[in-house]
Amino acid sequence: MVNLVKKTENMNIFEELWETLRNLFRSDKHSQTAARQILKDAFYFQNCDDYSKYFTGAVDGDARDKFTHWLINFNKLKEHAIDPENMAAKASLSSGDTLRVSFFIGDEAILTLDLQLKESTSTGCIDLSHAYFNGVVICGIDRLEVDLSNAETNNSRWYD
Question: Most exposed: 48, 59, 88, 137, by fewest CB within 10 Å?
Answer without folding.
Answer: 48
